Structure formats: structure tokens, C-alpha cells
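Morning. Coffee machine broken again, so started the prediction first thing and wrote up yesterday's gels while waiting. Chain of 174 residues, entered below exactly as on the submission form.
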Amino acid sequence: MRARSFSHAGITVSSFNRAVQFYWDVFGCPLVGVAETPPDRVRSFFGVGAGVESPTCKIGWIRVPGGGVLEIFEFQPQLPAERIPWNRIGLTHICLDVRNTRKWHAYLTAKNVEVLSEPEQSPRGHWFFFARDFDGNLIELIDLGYMYHVVKWLGPLGGWLFRRGMYRKYYEAG
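Came back before lunch.
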């Protein structure tokens, strides 16, 4: 058994409408679905709202060009946002594949998006930088260059080869 593809990443946002507007205006990602969760399910499934008469959860699906989805949750009541340290176990950021990180950096800066660094080149040749959405969620923008095509078209072959070769030790038990 193995996964067919990556489907989505989920984030909790302070404002559903603001999140929809942000990801549409900044990245061109449209809202493709919305669901309202009944209070009893918010309590039982999500474990949110104990002692609250009518806790709510609005869920939306924002499609990213290329097929990925960002699932957004707006809960009431809410807990305040916390910055996630890099070395804390768990999710740290989402990443969007782009072309020309310098243009994206200028574009985001002009849109008053919080940009955390200048684009930099990794030792493997790709370019990237980080920004934050309005709630402080980290967003990496990466330009893989020619490796985009290598990963897209040769990724399955590379995975098969690396599993049997240079990355074999990571697949061994223990």
C-alpha cells in the first residue's frame, strides 16, 4: 500500500473571510468548498468548545494551482496564535512552488505581506524565502528551477533508486 498523492494541508485561521481573501488576492488560490460544522461535532470530533453553548467551525478548501489544497478552519471560540519554533516537533510551514523568487519577494513586499528574508540559494541550487500570512503562519516560496521537472517527471524513478542506494539506511528497521 502507498499513498496516491499529497492532498492538502490544514491551518486554523482567525478569520475565514480574511483568509479566503488573502490567499486569493496574494496567490490566486480560489475557494472551492465551504462547510459549517454542527456544534455537537465541534465538541466531539475536534474537542473544541466544552462548556460553550454553540461552538462553531467553518471549514474551507482553497485550491492551489497545480492541485494541492489548503484547508482552512475558523473555530469559535478561538485560542490565540502562537509562533511555532523550528525545533518543535510538528508542522512548521507550508510551501508554494513559484518561478522567480526575486519577483515574488518584490510582489509580496508591495502587497504589505510580512516577508522574513531575502531570497537565498540553497546548496542544491534552488531559491527560496519565507513570509507569513496575516495570522503568522509561515509560507515558504521556492523556485526549484530545473529540479521542478526532474522531481515531477523522474521523482518516482528517483525514489525507487534512492531507496535502494544512497538513502537505503533510512528505510532499514531500527
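The domain at 1-80 is CATH 3.10.180.10 (2,3-Dihydroxybiphenyl 1,2-Dioxygenase; domain 1). Going to sketch it on the whiteboard this afternoon.
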